[in-house]
């Protein structure tokens, strides 16, 4: 009997695998279609300078408006897009759309976009960036590319070549989610990043756990010495801001300031038409 059960379990498992593979294939087809039919949308989350009490820019975060499944978060489709290479055309759309939108905003507002390692290693990136910047008349220093540490682990030589070629264009480069993965201080020597984005995991417990605050201080100290800005991700409470400022981190991003919002709401946010953190503070 046990044997029989084992076998049926196995069959059930195989069936499960099939379902998964089937779902994946379907999702890949859906993704291709999403590109053709323009089902993606960018939401924008403010980057806030807590020292000057001023918005310095927005990070563009992709959303997929699936015709049947509703809004799909990037955490649920970026990895499949990377595995299938579809991230390259998706990423091109992100660059164009973000540059188009940013060109509508004031000159002192930057736009940050996430660049997948797969897109980073693809050949067309530099050309796509140059075309988008010139098409929308966006000065390159208003565009900030967010890359992750994983790029600095493999093919370091190639990565550095690409980074330097992007630096020549004049776009800014930020190191995203710093402190996760296999962080190494050596990365910070290898390239003059404009900004280090300190991962949310150091912010979450910063009020309760002094070691998080100490780590943040070490990162901001190092960054300052190297001429790099820092920004803390995932800031949800005022008390976290107070500690971040004490520990040398002036730029923040998180639900405290605003969740990612539509382009329309972001424009209204800039004009002060939406209730914002700044107003709460001064009220
Ligand atoms: P990320 O670049 O680190 O973006 C920050 C993520 O944290 C966003 O999730 C944002 O909504 C979320 N977040 C912001 N503030 C808070 C907060 O106060 N608390 C909490 N709990 N979360 C906060 P989202 O939009 O779901 O994006 C997830 C990830 O997907 C991004 O992480 C990025 O790695 C990737 N991604 C998003 N858009 C793109 C894109 O256009 N291209 C590529 N290649 N990746 C993208
Ligand atoms: Mg990011
Ligand atoms: Mg991040
Ligand atoms: Mg993150």
Automatic annotation (TrEMBL):
This is EAL domain-containing protein. Residues 24-274 form the EAL domain. The chain holds residues 484 to 766 of 766 of the full protein. It comes from the Bacteria. Signal peptide: none annotated.
């Amino acid at each position: 009997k046990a044997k029989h059960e084992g076998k049926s379990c196995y069959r059930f498992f195989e069936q499960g695998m099939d379902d998964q593979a089937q779902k994946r294939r379907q999702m890949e087809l859906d993704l291709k279609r999403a590109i053709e039919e323009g089902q993606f949308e960018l939401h924008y989350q403010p980057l806030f300078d807590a020292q000057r009490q001023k918005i310095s820019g927005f990070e563009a975060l992709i959303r997929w408006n699936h015709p049947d499944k509703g809004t799909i978060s990037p955490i649920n489709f970026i990895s499949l897009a990377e595995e299938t290479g579809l991230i390259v055309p998706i990423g091109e759309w992100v660059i164009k759309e973000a540059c188009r939108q940013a060109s509508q905003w004031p000159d002192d507002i930057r736009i940050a976009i996430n660049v997948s390692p797969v897109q980073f290693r693809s050949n067309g990136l530099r050309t796509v960036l140059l075309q988008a910047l010139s098409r929308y008349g966006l000065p390159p220093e208003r565009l900030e590319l967010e890359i992750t540490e994983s790029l600095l682990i493999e093919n370091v030589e190639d990565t550095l070549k690409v980074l330097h070629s992007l630096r020549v264009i004049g776009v800014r480069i930020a190191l995203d989610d710093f402190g996760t993965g296999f962080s190494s201080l050596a990365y910070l020597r290898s390239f003059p990043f404009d900004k280090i984005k300190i991962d949310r995991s150091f912010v979450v417990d910063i009020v309760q756990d002094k070691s998080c605050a100490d780590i943040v201080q070490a990162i901001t100290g190092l960054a300052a010495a190297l001429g790099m800005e820092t920004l803390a991700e995932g800031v949800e409470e005022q008390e976290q801001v107070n500690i971040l400022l004490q520990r040398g981190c002036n730029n923040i991003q998180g639900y405290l300031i605003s969740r990612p919002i539509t382009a329309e709401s972001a424009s209204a946010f800039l004009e002060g038409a939406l209730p914002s953190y700044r107003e709460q503070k001064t009220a």
